[in-house]
Every structure is written in structure tokens, then in C-alpha cells.
Write a structure and sequence with these properties.
The complex is a heterodimer of chains A (457) and B (485). With 457 residues, chain A is an alpha/beta fold. Chain A has four domains: 2-122, NAD(P)-binding Rossmann-like Domain (Rossmann fold), CATH 3.40.50; 128-224, Regulator of K+ conductance, C-terminal domain (Alpha-Beta Plaits), CATH 3.30.70; 233-349, NAD(P)-binding Rossmann-like Domain (Rossmann fold), CATH 3.40.50.720; 352-456, Alpha-Beta Plaits, CATH 3.30.70.1450. Chain A has helices spanning 10-20, 33-42, 55-60, 76-90, 102-106, 124-137, 172-176, 217-224, 241-250, 263-272, 286-291, 307-320, 332-338, 349-361, 443-450; strands at 2-6, 25-30, 46-49, 68-71, 94-98, 120-122, 143-147, 152-158, 182-189, 192-194, 207-213, 233-237, 255-260, 277-280, 299-302, 324-328, 345-347, 366-372, 377-383, 407-414, 417-420, 432-437. In chain A, strands 3-2-1-4-5-6 form a six-stranded parallel β-sheet, with helices on both faces. In chain A, strands 14-13-12-15-16-17 form a six-stranded parallel β-sheet, with helices on both faces. A five-stranded antiparallel β-sheet of chain A has the order 7-8-11-9-10. In chain A, helix 12 links the parallel strand 15 (299-302) and strand 16 (324-328). In chain A, helix 1 (10-20) crosses helix 14 (349-361). With 485 residues, chain B is mostly helical. Chain B has a domain at 386-483. Helices cover 66% and strands 2% of the residues of chain B. Chain B has a two-stranded antiparallel ribbon with strand order 2-3. The chains are: A alpha/beta (457), B mainly alpha (485). Chain A binds chain B through residues 259-260, 263, 266-267, 269-271, 274, 277-281, 288, 291-292, and chain B through 371, 375-381, 383, 386-388.
Chain lengths: 457, 485
């Protein structure tokens, strides 16, 4: 595919990196020549300096024969104009825009073909916020990802000493919870994937991925480890776009404190938020943290722009007695470094948000993509089409499907019904199939499997 | 000096406009043929002649008003208008002193509703209409009216508008042009008044009483055509209609305007003041009713609720009607009503006092102080109804409150020196500065201000003026900085 990416910021460069690896022709446009040079040094793609909302720049970038436009610059307005131009001047088939302002998002007609012609709008900050909200809702989980419009969830949890299932084989799961349907999709032991089988024994420190209907998550989590007290107090450091959104999303149900360094931003944020206590200060100031009793905090989120600050304040908070600490870390090297140490969850914004973009880019009918284990593994929601003749999955039992090794079918959503991926389930057309892939290299094979052969048309 | 002449020029113009107000009593006197036609005609000619002369002699000084002269004009207008408005009273009522007549017209135009006159039932209809018309005109503000009808005030109009409109935050422009804003506010006011007249007629008043009481209710003035006030009618239906319209008048008219323009009642929920006022008044009505019933003042709860509701709403909104002599109730009830009269009315309404918005701001300010003690690093801007109130407004409110209480204290002492008892003195000052009307003791609802000496009458007159113009506008004229070049 020929893909044109506007904006070489964090979102633009991550998506470029991810798409280059999947055999696409990428052109990146930005006004900052330095950023583009860095990008070109690392990746095999074309770059162009210029204003992404100008037709001449778009033409030079090759929009005329592009298959897809990803407008992900910092400015909503530039993204909207670029989509409009692409649609009306160049007939670009797919147009995706990053839109942050809730004003636009509240009026969906802005994106219609009569107006700005945006096929899909994504808001990385919003996705990240929802992701963190889930983590706070389920403080025991490392990751909570939703599929099929929230009907099914994939939850990552690490097995702790004293959990009812720890030290027992997986087959005892059913005996433990006869009323709850769940399925373990994968287990990572010392960062190496295990294919879960009935006889696999869960050990302390295992990272377990299980799939269950969203309503059942809580009861399954209870089996994996002793239940923590529910969260009440949340402390956020950094009142930027994400911190502010998170506080807004949480302040109804939790006691939220937000620490922001910039006094002017504090004033603005405090004006926007209704019940959050906004504090002016440094997120790495241990005196301030003690004063605000970080020891009583259930979840501490360090969400500033600065990786090092986030790591330091998360470490300080953990030291001070915060129950669970989350740090936002942009640099992937740091993420590997700190995850699983004193910091409970190292969040890489790129990995969290890339999935929503990838779902549009992938071949086959992909409804959702979630990056797991910092991009190493992936969970996909694919829609099965066709019949037994034209498709290689429809009309077949799960154990008849030629899945690559390391890929497992976790669950199937048929209309409103959630079916666990047991070996004897037969897949029907229009089923949403949730596939867990332990190694990203196999994703392409899985997608191919779900493509309908030519005979179908 | 030149600028002062400009003020006199504008004042002359406004007096000429004001003389048109005599048309209504004039028409009434023709209809009822009560023999006051010639008096009102005379008053009208005199007023316009004085205005014309002031305007003519200073015509070379026509020009834009500066900010400080805007204040001078507003205060001059609010002292000159009641003065000329006394003309018909002095001409018609024998033996009325200028002091008493000025008190009466000032009470009318500041929407206080306190009266020195007895035998209201026997007054010529035209005089009653005149008193009530003053109530109504003063309610929305005579200068707002002038801004609405006189485009010639130009940019200075916004300044005048601000100096007269009650409330701490006056920059919420409803429309781009101040003339348009003033016109819309008056149209809403006129519309609700007509609805009130029709409702009162429907529940059994005659046209004259309906018009008079609607004027008094909407202006939150509280004049009545009867010595017994609304008690004369002894009708729960009339009391109920008046309660509804008094509450409407005690809300910000900008909110009424927005609700009308957006065709949605949601605007009222977004108005933090309206919500607080209604909640406070409803809770107080119930509480006082239970209290009166428990104390045995009224044998049945429903009678207690009826009288408590009407008199409490009337005093709390600074209207001043009375249906019973609440002075006879156990002291807690009337005292609570007086307290409400200080705080219950909204900014931008026709009521007086400190206003609910200032109360809310101070209440939240107190909360902020507590929070600051617990969390020294907290950034906690003042928010009312979801929007941030800048700190300078908080300080302005604190300054206002200080001046308000100092004024109350000084005027109370002035009345005490003159020999009035404490309850009467204190309640008279509170009732006058809040533009509520009846006080307690000798100035209670069953009596009137006629018993006071001339000196005491003047103290109360000053209280009414200072209260209506929200203290700053009047007191600024007495600061040396104002007169310094």
C-alpha cells in the first residue's frame, strides 16, 4: 500500500515505524526538517518538508496515487483541511485524521463526506486515557483490552504468591469457576511465551493473558490472585492533555489529586476540572508528596512529557508507599528497563495507541488491533467472511483451522453472544474472532488466513 | 466643571424623558375622574420644563461622559427623580411634608416599598398608580430604560448601565450592543409584568389592583393600594400568584432572557444563583411553617405554611408585601426573614441586598481558605456554576461586604442616637438598605414609617438610595480621589 503520513511527531513516527515493517510505501510530511532527517536515518521511507495542508505539498508527496492518508499532525485544523483536500482534489480512498478537540468530536457531522471527509478520526490521548482508566478500574491487571465493542476483554495479570490457582494446572480453572466462561490465551514465563495446555501449571511470576466476557473479568481476576481493595485515591503528576483528560474521567468516582509544575496551567486545569484537587508543584518533590500523603494513594500516575521525571516520580511514589504506580514512558528502551521492577506499569503511549491506527491499515476485515507486551505480541479482532469454499476459516472447527504455531483463537463473538474458543467450536460467517498472536511476525499469516479468496466475488 | 455641566446636560435630557412617566397616572385620573388631572399635568409640565432648562443652558457642553462622571450622573439621576416625582404627591395630599413625600418617592423608585402614608385605600387612584409605577420603573432601572430608548448616550451608556445594575459581575453581555441588551431586558420585564397583571386579574383582583400589584411584585417594590397590603384580599390564590412572580423577579433577568431566546428551561439550572435562591427559600418556607405550627402561632400546618410562604418570600425577595402582621410571630421567624432579605435576591434581578452571587462567592471563599490550610500547594480557583471567577472580583465582593456592614452599623447608630429602640432601628436600616420595606417593632408590617421623626426618615431615605445603587456608586462620590483632577 502507498501511505501518506502527515506529521512526524510521536504518533506519526511510531505509526511509520510500524507500517514500514509491514511492507508499505511510506511518505512522511512535516514542517520540521530535523525530525524528518532522524526518521529517514532509521527507516526506509520518503520524507518531505512542507505545510501538510497545502495542495502543492500534498501533490509533491504523491497524494495522487496514495491509497491512504494519515493526517496525524499536532493541529486538528491542518488534519481536517488535508483530509478535505485529499477527498475533493485527489480522491484518496481512505482518510484518517487525528482529532483532539472534543468540540469537533462532539459533532460527528463535521467528519461527513459533505464536510471534512474524514473516514476515521482517532484521538491518541483519549485512547490512552481510556486505557489508564481500565487499569485503575482493575488495579490487579497489567493490561485490560476490549474487543467487539466492549463485550469481550483480554486481561493480563501476573500470578502472585497466594492466588487460588497458583501452583495448579490450567485444567483446574473450570472446576474452580464452573459458572464463568474464560480461557487462558497465553502465558509468558520469564518473558518467553508458553502455549497454554490443560496440563500447564501456573507459577509465581507468570504473566497470564486470559479472555473472558467483560462482565466476568472481576471474578476471574479473583482466581488469579487475591483481590486488592478497590481503588479510591488517585494521584496524577502532569496536567497536560492526558493528565487532564484522565482527571476528568476519574473525578466522579475517585478522589483525584493532580500535581502540575506550571502555575498558569494549574489555573487553567483547576478551572476545567470540577472535583479534582489541583496542586502546584514538582512531581519529584518528595516533601510535597509526603504532605499530600502519597502513602495513602491507591494508584499513582506519572504522565508528564518527560520520561526521566515520570520514572523518578513514580519511583519516589512507590518508595513513599503508593500501592500501584504507573509511569508514561515514550522511549521504548526505558520501557523495557523499568517494567516489572519497582514501577508496576510502564506505559508506552505509542504501543497503546498504535493498534487503533493499525486496524484501518491492515488487510482483511480487522476490527481491532491491540499491541501486547510492548509490541512483541498482538491481539487481533478479525471478522470472518464468505463460506466454506471461499474462506479458510468459515465452516471449520477451530482445530481444523491452519493457524500458525503461537496463534490461538481466544473467543468468538457471534451477534451479541460471547463463545469461548474451545477446539470444537465451528466458525460462522460474520463472526468476530479474537486471535492472540505471541509473535508479531505471524500477524501477516493470520490476516491472510482470514482473507476471502477471489472466488467469493 | 465642564464635565459636571455635561452631566447636567444629560440629566436634563433624562428628566424630560422621565416626564413621560406622568402619562400613566394622567390617563388613570381621566378614566376614574378623581380630580387629580390638573395636578399631574402641572407636575409633568414642571418636570419637563426643569429638564428642558437644564438641557438648554448646558447645550454647549454636550459630549461623551467619562467613567467617573457616569457615576455622578447615575447618583444625580437617582436623587433628582424622586425629588420631581414628589410634585403630584405634594399637590394632591394636603399637609404632606417634603421629607415624607421624598421618602415615599425614594421608597417607590428604589423598590423598597416602605410607606409613610396611611389611608392608602382612600387615595386617588392616580396617586396609587403613580406610586406603583415608580416601583416598576425603579425595578429594572430607570437608566437601563434610558439606555434602551436613548441611543444618544452612546458608548457612555455601558458605563451607566454598569453603575446601576446590581451584582458584582456586569460584563456578561447578552447582545453585542448595550442598547440592544437594555432593550431586551426591558422587553422581558414588560412581558413577565403583563403575564402577572393577567394572572392577578384572573384570580380576582380588579384591573387597577392587578396593575398596581403586578408593578409592585415585578419591581419587588411592595407598595400596595391597601393599608392591610395583600392581607386585604385574604385570598390564597392571589398570594400564590404573587409568590410565583416575586420569585421570578428575584432571578436574574438575563437568565429569563436566555431561557426565552433558547426556548429552554435548562438555563435556570445553569444559573447557580437561581438554584441557590430557590433552594434556600423553599427550605426556609418549610422550616418557618413547621416552626410557627410547633410554636402554636397557627393551629393548622397548612395555615402556617400559607402565611409563612407568602410573607417569607415577600421579605426574602425584598418585595415587602405582607398578608399578616409577622411582627407578632416569635422573633426567630421575622429575624430569619430579614437575614434572607440580605442575601436571597439574585444579581441582575429587581431585588436588593447583598445578592446571592456575593453570598455564594464568600461562601466558596471560606471553603478555599480551609482548603489552603490543609493543602498549601493547592490551586483552587473560585468557581460559580462551572466558570471561574477572577480573584479581583472576590476582593471587590469582600470590599462590598465590609462597606455594607459598616453602612448598616453607622445608620443603625444614627437611628439609635435619635432615640429609636434597637429592634426598630436595626430592622428599619436592614429593610431600607435591602429595599425590602417593612421592618420590625414600630416600623413593622402593621405600622408604617410615618411614626418616625424627620431625621429618622432622612436616615432611612439615605439607606434606600445607598442600597439600591449598591453602595460603591454612591460612596465613590464622597472620596477625595473622585474630585481630584
Amino acid at each position: 500500500m502507498k501511505i501518506l503520513i502527515l506529521g512526524a511527531g510521536q504518533v506519526g513516527s511510531t505509526v511509520a515505524e510500524s507500517l514500514v515493517g509491514e511492507a508499505n510505501d511510506i511518505t512522511v510530511v512535516d514542517t520540521d526538517a530535523e525530525k524528518l532527517r532522524q526518521l529517514q536515518d532509521r527507516l526506509d521511507l520518503r520524507t518531505l518538508v512542507g505545510n501538510a495542508a497545502h495542495p502543492s505539498v500534498l501533490e509533491q508527496a504523491g497524494i495522487v496515487d496514495a491509497d491512504m492518508l494519515l493526517a496525524v499532525t499536532q493541529s486538528d485544523e491542518v488534519n481536517l483541511v488535508a483530509c478535505k483536500l485529499a477527498a475533493s482534489l485527489y480522491n484518496t480512498p481512505t482518510r484518517i485524521a487525528r482529532i483532539r478537540a472534543s468540540d469537533y468530536l462532539a459533532r460527528r457531522e463535521v467528519f461527513s463526506t459533505d464536510n471534512f471527509c474524514v473516514d476515521f478520526s482517532i484521538c491518541p490521548e483519549q485512547i490512552l486515557t481510556e486505557y489508564i482508566v481500565k487499569l485503575i478500574e482493575f488495579p490487579e491487571a497489567l493490561q485490560v483490552l476490549e474487543f467487539a465493542g466492549g463485550k469481550v476483554s483480554l486481561v493480563a495479570v501476573s500470578a502472585f504468591e497466594g492466588g487460588p490457582l497458583v501452583g495448579k494446572p490450567l485444567s483446574s480453572l473450570r472446576a474452580h469457576m464452573p459458572q464463568v466462561e474464560t480461557r487462558v490465551a497465553a502465558i509468558f514465563r520469564q518473558d518467553r511465551p508458553l502455549i497454554p495446555e490443560g496440563g500447564t501449571v501456573i507459577e509465581v511470576g507468570d504473566e497470564i493473558f486470559f479472555i473472558a466476557a467483560t462482565d466476568n473479568i472481576r471474578s476471574v481476576l479473583k482466581e488469579m490472585r487475591r483481590m486488592d481493595k478497590p481503588c479510591k485515591r488517585v494521584m496524577i503528576v502532569g496536567g497536560g492533555n492526558i493528565g487532564c483528560r484522565l482527571a476528568k474521567a476519574l473525578e466522579r468516582d475517585y478522589q483525584v489529586k493532580l500535581i502540575e509544575y506550571n502555575k498558569k496551567s494549574c489555573q487553567r486545569i483547576a478551572g476545567e476540572l470540577a472535583r479534582t484537587l489541583v496542586l502546584n508543584g514538582d512531581g519529584t518533590d518528595e516533601k510535597l508528596m509526603q504532605q499530600e500523603r502519597v502513602g495513602d494513594v491507591d494508584v499513582f500516575c506519572a504522565l508528564t512529557n518527560d520520561d526521566e521525571n515520570n520514572i523518578m516520580s513514580a519511583l519516589l511514589a512507590k518508595q513513599g508507599g503508593a500501592r500501584k504506580v504507573i509511569a508514561l514512558i515514550n522511549r521504548s528502551a526505558y520501557v523495557e528497563l523499568v517494567q516489572g521492577g519497582k514501577i508496576d506499569i510502564a506505559l508506552s503511549p505509542a504501543h497503546v495507541t498504535i493498534g487503533s491506527l493499525l486496524a484501518y491499515v491492515r488487510q482483511g476485515d480487522v476490527a481491532a488491533v491491540h499491541s501486547l507486551r510492548r509490541g512483541a505480541a498482538e491481539a487481533l479482532e478479525l471478522v470472518a467472511h464468505g463460506d466454506r469454499q471461499s474462506s479458510r476459516v468459515v465452516g471449520r472447527r477451530i482445530d481444523e483451522i491452519d493457524l500458525p504455531k503461537g496463534a490461538t483463537i481466544g473467543a468468538i463473538v457471534r451477534a451479541d453472544e460471547v463463545i469461548m474458543g474451545h477446539h470444537d467450536v465451528v466458525i460462522e460467517a460474520e463472526d468476530h474472532v479474537i486471535v492472540f498472536v505471541v509473535n508479531k511476525a505471524m500477524v501477516h499469516k493470520v490476516e491472510k488466513l482470514f482473507q476471502v479468496s477471489i472466488g467469493f466475488f | 466643571m465642564q464635565r459636571t455641566l455635561t452631566v447636567i446636560h444629560s440629566l436634563g435630557l433624562m428628566l424630560m424623558v422621565f416626564s413621560a412617566a406622568y402619562l400613566m397616572p394622567l390617563a388613570t385620573s381621566w378614566i376614574y375622574d378623581d380630580g387629580t388631572q390638573i395636578d399631574f399635568l402641572l407636575a409633568m409640565v414642571w418636570t419637563s420644563a426643569i429638564g428642558f432648562l437644564m438641557w438648554l443652558l448646558t447645550r454647549h457642553y454636550k459630549g461623551e461622559l467619562s467613567v467617573r462622571h457616569g457615576y455622578l450622573l447615575v447618583v444625580a439621576m437617582w436623587t433628582a427623580m424622586p425629588a420631581v416625582a414628589t410634585l403630584p404627591l405634594l399637590l394632591v395630599i394636603d399637609g404632606l411634608s417634603f421629607t415624607d413625600a421624598y421618602f415615599e418617592t425614594m421608597s417607590g423608585i428604589t423598590t423598597t416599598g416602605a410607606t409613610v402614608l396611611t389611608g392608602l385605600d382612600d387615595l386617588p387612584q392616580a396617586i396609587n398608580i403613580w406610586r406603583h409605577e415608580l416601583n416598576w420603573l425603579g425595578g429594572m432601572g430607570i437608566i437601563v430604560l434610558a439606555v434602551a430608548v436613548l441611543p444618544l448616550l452612546g458608548v457612555g451608556g455601558r458605563q451607566l448601565f454598569k453603575a446601576e445594575t446590581p451584582g458584582p459581575m456586569k460584563d456578561t453581555a447578552l447582545t453585542p450592543r448595550i442598547t440592544e441588551t437594555a432593550r431586551n431586558l426591558w422587553l422581558v420585564y414588560l412581558g413577565i409584568t403583563i403575564a402577572c397583571i393577567l394572572s392577578l386579574k384572573a384570580v380576582g383582583m380588579n384591573w387597577l389592583d392587578a396593575i398596581c400589584h403586578a408593578f409592585a411584585a415585578m419591581g419587588l417594590g411592595g407598595f400596595s393600594t391597601h393599608d392591610a397590603s395583600v392581607g386585604y384580599f385574604n385570598s390564597p390564590a392571589i398570594e400564590f400568584v404573587l409568590i410565583v412572580f416575586m420569585l421570578l423577579a428575584a432571578m436574574n433577568f438575563a437568565t429569563h432572557f436566555l431561557a426565552w431566546r433558547e426556548k429552554s428551561l435548562k438555563q435556570y439550572l445553569h444559573d447557580a444563583e437561581a438554584v441557590a435562591t430557590i433552594a434556600l427559600i423553599l427550605a426556609s418556607c418549610l422550616g418557618i411553617a413547621v416552626f410557627l405550627w410547633w410554636q402554636g402561632t397557627y393551629p393548622s400546618f397548612w395555615t402556617a405554611l400559607r402565611h409563612a410562604s407568602f410573607n417569607l418570600v415577600s421579605i426574602a425577595t425584598d418585595c415587602g408585601f405582607a398578608s399578616v402582621d409577622f411582627n407578632q410571630w416569635p422573633t426567630f421567624a421575622p429575624m430569619w426573614m430579614l437575614l434572607l432579605s440580605c442575601i436571597a435576591a439574585s444579581s441582575g434581578s429587581t431585588g436588593g441586598g447583598i445578592k446571592m452571587i456575593r453570598t455564594l462567592i464568600l461562601f466558596k471563599q471560606a471553603g478555599r481558605e480551609f482548603l489552603k490550610l490543609l493543602h498549601p500547594a493547592a490551586v483552587n480557583p473560585m468557581k460559580i456554576g462551572g466558570s471561574v471567577v477572577p480573584n479581583n472580583i472576590v476582593f471587590a465582593v469582600l470590599g462590598f461586604i465590609f462597606l455594607y456592614f459598616m453602612t448598616v452599623a453607622i445608620l443603625t447608630f444614627a437611628l439609635l442616637i435619635s432615640g429609636l429602640d434597637f429592634i426598630s432601628a436595626f430592622s428599619a436600616v436592614i429593610a431600607c438598605i435591602n429595599n425590602a420595606g417593612p421592618g420590625l417593632g414600630v416600623v413593622g408590617p402593621a405600622n408604617n414609617y410615618g411614626v418616625l421623626t424627620d431625621f429618622q426618615i432622612w436616615v432611612c431615605t439615605i439607606a434606600m438610595l445607598v442600597g439600591r445603587l449598591e453602595i460603591f456608586t454612591v460612596l465613590i462620590l464622597f472620596t477625595p480621589q473622585f474630585w481630584r483632577r
